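ok so I'm stuck.
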Amino acid sequence: MKYAIITLFFFMGMQMNAQQTPAGKQSTPITIEGAVAHLGNGEVIENSLIMFAEGKLTYVGDAATRIARTGKVIDAKGKHVYPGFIAPGKSLGLVEVNAVRASNDQDEIGDLIPHVRSLIAYNAESQVVESMRPNGVLLSQITPQGGRISGTSSIVQFDAWNWEDAAVKVDDGIHLNWPSTFRRGRWWLGEPRGYQPNKDYRQQVAKVKTFMNNALAYGKATPKVQNQPFAAMQGLFDGTQKLFVYAHGQKEIMDAISSAKTAGVKHIVLVGGYHAHKITAFLKEHDIPVLVRFTHSLPFFEDDDYDFTYKLPKLLMDAGLLVGIQNADASNFQTRNLPFYAGQTVAQGLDKEKALQLISGNNAKILGIDADYGTLEVGKSATLFISAGDALDMRTNQLSKAFIDGRDLSLETHQTELWKRYMGKYQGK
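replied:
not stuck anymore, here's the structure
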C-alpha cells in the first residue's frame, strides 16, 4: 500500500509538471484568410490569403486574388498574422528554477570553454519554454552563460519532445564576454563603490587574443592529440559559425572586433552594444550586426537620457545597421515580453513594421536562419501565429492560433491552466 501511494504521487507530480504534448506533423493543408498579414520584412497585406502544406508556406498574397483555397480554412477577418518571433541569446530550457542547482545547466566550470554545447542540456519539456508560445515567441537561440568564452549555442523551436526534435540550427555560434575597461568596486575588500578602471584589462584581452591565435594555429596543424576547446573554435575561422561578442563601451567594442578580425574570425555579431551608436561608421565598415539589450531596462549611467534604452534600436537602424533585440540580461520568464520590447521602440518614432523586424526578419538574418524563418514568404517554414490585435501591444497580443513548421500548437501552459483554475474559483464570489 505504501509503495502504491508513493507511485501515485510520483505520477501526479509528472502530470502537474508535464508540458503540453507536441503537435504532430501537418497532415492537412491550411488556409488563413482575411487577416492583416505582417510579413516581417516591412511589408503588410491588409486582406491576406496565406496557405501552407507539409510545414511550408505555399501562398502568401492578397485574398482578392482568384486562387483555390485548400484544406482547412481559418476565417481571420479582423485579426493579424505574424511570423513566429525569435529570441536570441537566452538560456531558455537550460534553467528551470534558479535556486535549484540540479535544474540549472546554463554555466559550466571553466573560463575558456567553447566546446561546451548548450543544446544537449536543453530541456524541451520546460514549463518556462512553453510559456513563451502564447505571446508569439516560437524560436530561440539557446545560449550558455558565464566565463570569458561561455560555449556554443544552438537554435531551437518551442514544440518538441526532446532536444534532437527541437534543433533548428546546431552549434550556430560561440559566445565571448569581452573584458570591460571598468569594473565595480569590490566594497568587501575596502574598494570604493561604483565603477573604477579595470587594471587587469590588458592582461585579460591578451589572454583572449592568445587563445584565439592558438586556436587558429591548431586548425592549421596536424596535432596528434585533440584539444577540444581549440577544435570547437574552427567554425569561426572557416565561416560556418558566428562569434557573438558581448561588449558595451566604445573601446571594448572596437578592441573586440579588431582582435577577432585579426585572428581570422569571419562573422561577428555584437551583443549589447550600449555605446554602439557612437561608432556606427566603424560597425558599418566591418559589417557588424547588433543585438541590442531588451528595452525595458534602466540606463547604465546617471547622466544618460532616461529613455536611452528605448531609443537605441532606432538610433542604430537609422545609421544603416542590421539590428535585432536580445534579452540575455533579462530573466527567462521576461523573454515572453520580447514583442513588447520591440513595441517600446515605436513610441520612440520607429516605424511599427521596422520594429517588428527587430524580433522577426532581422533576428533571423543575424542568426543565419532567414532561409526558413523570420518572414512570411513562399517556400519558408509555416512558423506563424494569429493574434486578435497588434502583437507588439500587450493589451491586444492575444493569440488564437500558432503554428511551428505547420504544426498546430497548443497555447495552454501551466500558467494559463492556473489562471483558468482560479478565475473559475473567484469569478462567482
